Amino acid sequence: MSTKSTGSKASYTRHNVEYKLESLKPATQMGVAKAAKQLGLHES
């Protein structure tokens, strides 16, 4: 599903396309503002 990448600056997680598409479903189903609020995130 994801791989950890590390470099000299910072580590980050690289997610595959399937994970990214699944994570966007709530935004497309209920709208970005509502999905962001539900997840405790900012809209942008």
Structural overview:
The protein is built from 2 helices and 2 strands, in the order E-E-H-H. With 44 residues, the chain is α+β, with helices and mostly antiparallel strands. The chain has one domain. A two-stranded antiparallel ribbon has the order 1-2. The chain is flat and about 35 Å long. It starts with a strand and ends in a 5-residue tail after the last helix. The model has no long low-confidence stretch (mean pLDDT 83).
Short description:
The chain is an alpha+beta fold and 44 residues long. It contains two helices and two strands; from the N terminus they run ββαα.
User: For the residues shown, what is the average pLDDT?
Assistant: 83
Structure class: alpha+beta
Rg: 13 Å
The amount of helix comes to: 40-55%
Work out the strand percent. 15-25%
Main sheet summary: 2 strands, antiparallel
The coarse silhouette is flat
Order of strands across the main sheet? 1-2
Helix-strand pattern: EEHH
**Count of DSSP helices?**
2
Number of strands: 2
Distance between the termini: 25 Å
Number of domains: 1
The unreliable regions are none
Which descriptors apply to this entry?
44 residues; two-stranded antiparallel sheet; flat
What are the SSEs and their pairings?
Blueprint: E1 2-5, E2 12-15, H1 17-30, H2 32-39
Antiparallel strand pairs: 1-2
